[in-house]
Structures are given as structure tokens and as C-alpha cells.
Amino acid sequence: MQRLSWLLVVSLLVLAVVCTSNLVTGCKAEQSGTEPGDVIVNSIGMKLAYISAGEFEMGSPLDEEGRQGDEFRHRVKLTRPFCIGVTEVTQSQWETVMGYNRSNFKGESLPVEKLSWREAVSFCEKLSEKEGKVYRLPTEAEWEYACRAGSAGAFGGSGNIDDMGWYEVNSEGRTHPVGTKQANAWGLYDMHGNVSEWCSDIYSADYPEGAVADPAGASEGTYRVMRGGSWSSFARGCRCAARNSAPVSYQFIQTGFRVVMEASE
Ligand SMILES: [Ca+2]
Hints:
With 265 residues, the protein is of the alpha+beta class.
């Protein structure tokens, strides 16, 4: 009888360990993302989509309408998966982390704007400390990969800028709450228009001539990249491949950002 009791206790212990490890595995998968489309939510309510490593054609074809000379098409490989903000950083999220809000158009769910590249980097550093994860600005290549979400055309998603973004024709001269136009194929909103978005790269008009892996921009220079166009841009400035840049201290009422959280592989 005593042996039976011991067997029962041991069995229950084994069962408990198995159940706990399953829970931990499930929780980890939920937190770090396992496949494209998986969305996690951090402590300030920011949603981030898991993006797999992969390859794509960065830049535009010669016959794309509105094309500029700094969009040389070349093969880019991204060797690491990453999580990227499903939306631009909102004023509510910004204020929670930074304690102030200088945006021109005021509203909790509006994208934060009128912030310098340096301030965007500072936000990422503070958020990293708060969350215990590595947050940073996307590289220009990560940004375009995420914007295209598998599309080779001028615009992601439906391919129609009017469906996808707030820009000069439909914005009525202001920003709009994030996530109110259609998402692209990877569930990301406002990659075209609303606010243009700071990236980490130092801008260079010359892309690499051949295939590259994990490009991170020029090694020297004073201009940082901004992507996606804004509420005040024409359609051509909102294309996946369209590039813009400004010095690190400049603040525009057209420019905000979204974050990348580094993902476990
Ligand atoms: Ca945008």
C-alpha cells in the first residue's frame, strides 16, 4: 500500500513537470514569435509582428513611375528574423516612455511626430531598459523588406496607395490614427504615408552594386534615412523604394518612426 502511494506521488510529480515545461514552451513561443504573422504585445501595449529572415529585391525597377536615381535595384539577404512594430509609435506610447510629447497634431492614437532621429534612438534605448529586450530603429533594408511584405511593386498590400496609406491626396493635411488603412500582407499598417519613419542607416545615394547581406547603410555621413512618405507626400514619395533623409537633429511634423525588437531565432 505504501509503495502504491509513493508511485502515485512520483507519477503526479512527473505529470506536473511535463505540464509546466509545456506551459513554459508555449509562453516563450508566444513572447518571441515563431512565424510570420505572429504578433506579440509588450508592456506598453505596442504590437510587434514577427518577420522571418529572407531575401528580396531592394530598390525599384527602371520603369517604375516616380522612380528616383537612388533606388538601384539589388539583391538583399536578411539573415536574422526580427519583430517590427505593427504600427508607427503612437503619442500615447511615446509619452509613457519619454514623459513628454511635442507632436504638432495631438491625439493618443495618432503617430508621434516632430522628433529628431536622436530622440527616436533614445526612445528605443529607454524601451529596451524597460522591457529587458533589444529595441532599435529598423535598418533601411529591414524597413523596405517589411514594407514590401513579398510585393515587388511600387506599393505593398493591395498595391493601391489609396487603400494603404494617408498621403497628400486623402490626408486633409494632417496625420490620422495609426492602423486605420489596410494592412499589408504581413499585417503592418501605414508603411505608406501617415508619418515617414526614421531608420537607423546613414544615408548614401549609392546602393551596393551586387548582392549583400544585412546592409546597415553608409559608414560615414550626416544624414539619416527616412522612409515611406507622409500625409503631405505625393504618391511617388510613398512608394516602397522611395528614400528620404535628414540630419539627426531635425524635427519634422511629417516624421515619426516604428521600432524593431530583436527576435530569438
Ligand atoms: Ca508611415
